Structure formats: structure tokens, C-alpha cells
């Protein structure tokens, strides 16, 4: 029987082919067998590292192996991620830290080390790119892969290549991943969420419509809580109900989103895996130890975050035209303000000054638990920050910023500070932010 015969699967632990319908591997005895009628005809994959930040910390500190671990920023922050032991106890990503500790008081809380996580993420990414040039990153720890046409290169069908990849990540990097395999990105992403951690799920063409019919509408990409509530009011709770509605009717009710509902509810997704997928924004934010209301307390934080955003823009060779300010009140309500510039910028000074103008309108006595600043409408930095004929001091500030950057490159980030942040305490030097 050939390797890609539809009637046989393989063992995910030893990769031995399984020609008999047994419950355990005939070679190593493992129960982790993978069988599917379309197993060897599918090539679009989604890879997701399991509880990535927590997994890296457990790898580096084996004493944490059997303990609940939360990655986050102290009692006032939010959960960035949590290991599966903590999740069993009710901890979820983006949950306020005080609620997470109420749910799992025995958890070990670790402050995020983004530099380390980025380094490990790049190692995983490099292993993906060794499989195919068509790798589309989604975040630091997940990506889509198109393995079409790679069977001759690897001597194995995509399904086996993915299983070998997952095994190699565990052995060489020390963390685990979950994989989803299908014929389109939408269903590959859904498949990777099943049976985590160390999952490998397959959704084929023949089963797609029937499988989706039983799922909630929230499984469709783009259907969040607010839109799900709208669909609920219209009596639409499952994808199967959407499948019964004509395209024109869905578009009449929900506009362009109705068109997406029509196609995705039927498992139709024409989006290609694009290795040139670009970031839409660059931002930095921090959660305070205590709520802040005074301008004098918020401005140093805004300046420090603006410098972080600027540094990332400069390293990436990009610039942004729209500056976005984000605030979260003490009752967890989010305020977002934005302002478009005449030209793209990558300068901390312009980002800060623009953010300061927006912040001044929000310092009305409201107490804030979070502050963030970022830029969107990204482009390359070739046309960024042209000479300002009106503001004659702008060029001097830009030159001064360049000098500061040079000193920081040579002596470290804290070698030079502006008057906005010098001596202003911890809030003026927030830890590396998680949102990027």
C-alpha cells in the first residue's frame, strides 16, 4: 500500500504507517494515531504553539513542570497566557490578574520576558520555513503554512511532514505545538484549536459543511461578542442556520459581513497563505500598579511608550501615519483616540507630541489603569518625517533623537533619558509590553 493511501494513517509519535484499524500503534504502542479519509490530499496548515510563554518558562525551569503558571504583570495587570493546569482552574488570557489569582491562588506568576519569547518564536519560525517558503506569520507563536507541492522535496505528504515538524519542535526546542490541516485557512485554524495541547486535527472537504453546521456562529472569523449578539437577536445561533440563508439576504441584513458569513459558513475561503503578510500596527501599552488620573503621572508613561514604539519602527524600517492612543478606565472601559499625520513618522517625539494632544483631552479626572500608544497605516520609512517648514525646532529635535538613539545603542536603553522620564519612577519605565 503506498504512503498516501487514504485508508491508512500513521503514528504521531514514531511516524510508523498504520495499515490495520488498531487503537494503538503497531510499532511503538502509542495511542496517538491519526487517520482521516482525506489525510494525504490536504496541504493548508495552521501551527499554534501551546501556551507559548508559559511553555518556554517551564522549559527553562523544570521545577514548574507540574505547577500552574501564569504569565502576567502583577496583581494590577492582566494574564498574557497561562499553562493548561492554570486553565483547568479557570484562568484565561486577558483576564485581570486579581481574578486569575482568585481562581487559582496557588499559581506561580512570572513577569513576561518578551526578548526570550521572541527569540524562541524565531527558532520555531525558522523550522517552519525549512518546510515551505509559504509561511504566513499570524503572531509570535502561530502561522499558516501552504505545503502544496512540497511532497517531492520532503519525500512525504504534508500530513507526515507536519507530524515530523511537531515532533522536532518538542525535541529540539522543548515546547509543544498543535497543528490543524485542511484545504483552506479558515478550517485549518479551527482544526488547530481542537485537542490542545499537542493536538493534530484534520477537516476535509467532504465533511466541512456538515461539521460547520453544528458549530456556533462565533466560530466564524470576525464574529465577536457584539456581532454574535446581533445574530442572536435575529435567531441565528449556529452556522447551520446561516447555511440556509441566501447570499443576497445575508448581505442585505449585514452588509459586507453578510458576504463573509455566506462563504465561510459553507467552508469556502479563497485567501492564500501569504509570506509577505504585513503588520497593521505597532504599539506598546502598560498597566499601572495603581490607577492614575493626573497629567503629571501619565505623561512620563506616554513618553516612555512612545520611545518603545519608535525603536521598533526604526529597527523594522517602517513608519506610521496614524497615531493611536489607548486608555482603559478603572472600570475596564476602553477609550481609543487616533489622529492622522500629514506624513508618516517613526520619531518618538512626533508620536509623543501627537499622543499628548489627545491625552490632554482625556485627563478630566478619570482614573486610568492602562495607557497605550501606537501607530497604524504603516509604510516603509523612505518618506517619513520630511523637514517641517513651520516648526523650525522639529529638525533639531529629530537630530537630538538620533544622537540619543546612538548613545543607547552603544551604552544601553537607560544610558540617556529625557526630562519627561528622568526620575519619574517605575511607571515611567514600564516593562516590555506584550501587545505589538
The mean pLDDT is 87
Enter the CATH topology name of the largest domain.
Alpha-Beta Plaits
Radius of gyration: 25 Å
- What's the CATH H-level homologous superfamily of the largest domain? Reverse transcriptase/Diguanylate cyclase domain
Strand content: 15-25%
The unreliable regions are 429-436
Query: What count of domains describes the coordinates?
Result: 3
Q: By helix and strand content, what is the structural category?
A: alpha+beta
The geometry reads as globular
Largest sheet: spatial strand order: 8-9-4-10-11
Distance between the termini: 49 Å
Helical fraction equals: 25-40%
Top CATH class of the largest domain: Alpha Beta
Number of strand segments: 15
Order of helices and strands: EEEEHEEHHEHEEHHEHEHHHHHEHEEHEH
CATH architecture of the largest domain: 2-Layer Sandwich
Amino acid at each position: 500500500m503506498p504512503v498516501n493511501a487514504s485508508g491508512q494513517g500513521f503514528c504521531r509519535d514514531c511516524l510508523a504507517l498504520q495499515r490495520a484499524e488498531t487503537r494503538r500503534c503497531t510499532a511503538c504502542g502509542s495511542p496517538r494515531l491519526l487517520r482521516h479519509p482525506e489525510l494525504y490530499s490536504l496541504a493548508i496548515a495552521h501551527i499554534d504553539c501551546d501556551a507559548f510563554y508559559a511553555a518556554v518558562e517551564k522549559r527553562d525551569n523544570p521545577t514548574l513542570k507540574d505547577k500552574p503558571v501564569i504569565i502576567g504583570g502583577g496583581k494590577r495587570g492582566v494574564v498574557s497566557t497561562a499553562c493548561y493546569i492554570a486553565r483547568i482552574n479557570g484562568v484565561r488570557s486577558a483576564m485581570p490578574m486579581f481574578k486569575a489569582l482568585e481562581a487559582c491562588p496557588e499559581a506561580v506568576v512570572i513577569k513576561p520576558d518578551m526578548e526570550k519569547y521572541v527569540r524562541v518564536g524565531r527558532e520555531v519560525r525558522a523550522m517552519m520555513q525549512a518546510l515551505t517558503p509559504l509561511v504566513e506569520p499570524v503572531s509570535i507563536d502561530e502561522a499558516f503554512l501552504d505545503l502544496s507541492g512540497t511532497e517531492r522535496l520532503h519525500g512525504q505528504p504534508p500530513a507526515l511532514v507536519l507530524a515530523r515538524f511537531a515532533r522536532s519542535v518538542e525535541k529540539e526546542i522543548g515546547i509543544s505545538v498543535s497543528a490543524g490541516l485542511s484545504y483552506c485557512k479558515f478550517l485549518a485554524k479551527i482544526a488547530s484549536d481542537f485537542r490542545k495541547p499537542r493536538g493534530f486535527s484534520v477537516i476535509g472537504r467532504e465533511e466541512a459543511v456538515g461539521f460547520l453546521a453544528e458549530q456556533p456562529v462565533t466560530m466564524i472569523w470576525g464574529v465577536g461578542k457584539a456581532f454574535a449578539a446581533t445574530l442572536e437577536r435575529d435567531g441565528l445561533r449556529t452556522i447551520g442556520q446561516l447555511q440556509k440563508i441566501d447570499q443576497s439576504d445575508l448581505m442585505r441584513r449585514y452588509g459586507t459581513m453578510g458576504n463573509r458569513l455566506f462563504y465561510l459558513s459553507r467552508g469556502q475561503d479563497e485567501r492564500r497563505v501569504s509570506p509577505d503578510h504585513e503588520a497593521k500596527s505597532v504599539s506598546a501599552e502598560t498597566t499601572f500598579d495603581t490607577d492614575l488620573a493626573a497629567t503629571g503621572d501619565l505623561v512620563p508613561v506616554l513618553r516612555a511608550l512612545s520611545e518603545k514604539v519608535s525603536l521598533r519602527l526604526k529597527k523594522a524600517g517602517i513608519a506610521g501615519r496614524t497615531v493611536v492612543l489607548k486608555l482603559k478606565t478603572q472600570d475596564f472601559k476602553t477609550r481609543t483616540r487616533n489622529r492622522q499625520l500629514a506624513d508618516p513618522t517613526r520619531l518618538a517625539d512626533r508620536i509623543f507630541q501627537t499622543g499628548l494632544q489627545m491625552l490632554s483631552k482625556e485627563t478630566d479626572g478619570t482614573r486610568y489603569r492602562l495607557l497605550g500608544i501606537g501607530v497604524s497605516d504603516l509604510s516603509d520609512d523612505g518618506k517619513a518625517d520630511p523637514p517641517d517648514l513651520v516648526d523650525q525646532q522639529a529638525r533639531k529635535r529629530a537630530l537630538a533623537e538620533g544622537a540619543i538613539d546612538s548613545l543607547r545603542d552603544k551604552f544601553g536603553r537607560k544610558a540617556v533619558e529625557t526630562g519627561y522620564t528622568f526620575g519619574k519612577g517605575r511607571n515611567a519605565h514600564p516593562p516590555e509590553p506584550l501587545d505589538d
